[in-house]
């Protein structure tokens, strides 16, 4: 066996995650992007903890956190479009600088106990400066894995990013609660600001993995004159130069057999809106609907454990779901699943629905519920990774960041709706009724995913 064959077999036998990090620059942008994502799990909770401690008002704290989340969701696609249009290298440092200034301004204002209306305005301004680091990292993975040799590892890369998201959401709230109770009520606002600044600066300084800005190329096909067209126009066919001729005249552009009319780059041309691609809107609706289940479960579980006098174990109970999701991401990324991504999404949504039904049945036994959370959580990260892969299949490369950010936005909108609906049901009824919301909304997402699958097949 030749040395090249042995090396090829050795690479093939490696774990897909090991192959992933052998790619130059992959470790650097993956780790720095993970650090820069810390605010997504800390800032919203940090607002609630800080305001409740300083002003002793849950309503104001919850409302300000919700306004911050909605502001982030509103501008995420706009920033993504800028990154696709002008590149991460040009837009990133400026956007990061504005974001850090806004986060520091809010943290300092909270520390100074400014009036609540001013703090509301600063919270909205801070949300309007946030962009999705997760979409930027996934776009870099797509660029780093381009080509036939590494294309199959994109499934592993997106599963890895889903696992990192879960790790961030496991440790972020724990760190925020610890800082708020053990250090200072506002310290949990400064830590994510520092993490975002350091991680983002390193991320945007990595030049080798920056995706290029792709401009659409407008090419008009060459016209080939033939004898028939010459006969119609009455023009004689151009004479061929023979070997006996003394000099060959330079052919004019009109006499060339292949005539390229124009090849230009229309910089003024705007890329097509991502939402107009068939299958994107059904996918976003699916993400809005089933993401309502997560915050609805969190709120319902909080009320359940509070009624049982077990609030001190709430963080551990909720973490079981994220642990299962993290394990699911590792398993999903180590395998190459065959068939349509839409079919995988329908399967994961169905399994998630069944898991939520079991939650409702065993919600009185926290130990069994924790086990079921781990098992059901195995479907969560694969579900998000599958959605990102669907976007990758539908949206062209030059608009990939915008497409991926729309998925993040849809998820944020869904989570805000879920907590609102669950809170209203709790006020009107009981935790047993609100715990039905997760399986109902996830079940409603299944036919929407089937519709997206149908449209995808029709598109092909």
UniProtKB/TrEMBL annotation:
Annotated localization: Cell membrane
Positions of the Major facilitator superfamily (MFS) profile domain: 279-460
Parts of the chain that traverse the membrane: 28-52, 58-79, 91-112, 118-137, 158-180, 186-206, 275-294, 314-333, 345-368, 374-391, 403-425, 437-456
Region (Disordered): 230-258
Keyword entries, A-Z: Membrane, Transmembrane, Transmembrane helix
Membrane topology: Multi-pass membrane protein
Stored InterPro entries: MFS (IPR011701), MFS_dom (IPR020846), MFS_trans_sf (IPR036259)
KW Hydrolase (keyword) present: no
Superkingdom per UniProt: Bacteria
Protein name (record): Transport protein
Species this protein is from: Bifidobacterium bifidum ATCC 29521 = JCM 1255 = DSM 20456
Source organism phylogeny: Bacteria, Bacillati, Actinomycetota, Actinomycetes, Bifidobacteriales
């Amino acid at each position: 066996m030749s040395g090249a064959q042995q090396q090829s077999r050795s690479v093939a036998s490696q774990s897909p995650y090991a192959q992933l990090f052998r790619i130059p620059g992959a470790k650097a942008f993956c780790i720095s992007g993970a650090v820069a994502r810390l605010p997504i799990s800390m800032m919203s909770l940090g607002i609630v903890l800080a305001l409740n401690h300083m002003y002793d008002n849950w309503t104001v704290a919850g409302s300000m956190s919700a306004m911050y989340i909605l502001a982030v969701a509103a501008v995420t696609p706009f920033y993504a479009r800028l990154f696709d249009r002008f590149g991460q290298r040009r837009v990133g440092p400026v956007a990061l600088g504005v974001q850090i200034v806004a986060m520091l301004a809010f943290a300092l204002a909270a520390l100074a106990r400014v009036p609540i209306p001013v703090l509301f305005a600063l919270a909205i301004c801070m949300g309007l400066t946030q962009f999705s680091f997760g979409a930027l990292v996934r776009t870099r993975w797509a660029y780093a894995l381009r080509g036939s040799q590494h294309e199959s590892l994109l499934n592993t890369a997106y599963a890895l990013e889903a696992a990192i998201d879960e790790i961030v959401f496991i440790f972020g709230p724990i760190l925020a609660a610890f800082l708020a109770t053990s250090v200072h009520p506002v310290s949990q606002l400064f830590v994510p600001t520092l993490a975002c600044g350091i991680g983002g600066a390193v991320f945007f300084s990595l030049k080798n993995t920056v995706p290029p800005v792709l401009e659409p190329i407008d090419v008009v096909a060459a016209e080939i004159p033939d004898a028939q067209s010459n006969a119609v126009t009455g023009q004689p066919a151009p004479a061929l130069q023979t070997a006996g001729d003394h000099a060959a005249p330079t052919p004019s552009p009109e006499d060339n057999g292949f005539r390229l009319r124009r090849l230009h780059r229309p910089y003024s041309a705007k890329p097509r809106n991502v939402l107009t691609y068939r299958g994107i809107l059904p996918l976003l609706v699916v993400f809005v609907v089933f993401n309502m289940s997560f915050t609805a479960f969190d709120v319902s579980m909080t009320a359940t454990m509070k009624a049982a006098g077990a609030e001190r174990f709430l963080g551990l109970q909720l973490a079981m779901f994220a642990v299962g999701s993290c394990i699911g991401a590792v398993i999903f990324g180590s395998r190459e699943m065959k068939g349509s991504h839409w079919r995988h999404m329908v399967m994961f949504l169905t399994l998630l629905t069944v898991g939520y039904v079991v939650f409702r049945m065993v919600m009185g036994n926290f130990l069994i519920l924790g086990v079921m959370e781990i098992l059901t959580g195995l479907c969560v990260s694969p579900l998000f990774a599958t959605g990102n892969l669907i976007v990758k299949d539908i949206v062209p490369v030059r608009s990939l960041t915008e497409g991926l950010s729309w998925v993040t936005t849809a998820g944020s909108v869904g989570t805000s709706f879920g907590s609102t609906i669950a809170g209203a049901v709790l006020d009107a009824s009981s935790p047993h009724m609100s715990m039905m919301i997760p399986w109902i909304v996830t079940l409603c997402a299944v036919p929407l995913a089937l519709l997206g699958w149908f449209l995808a097949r029709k598109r092909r």
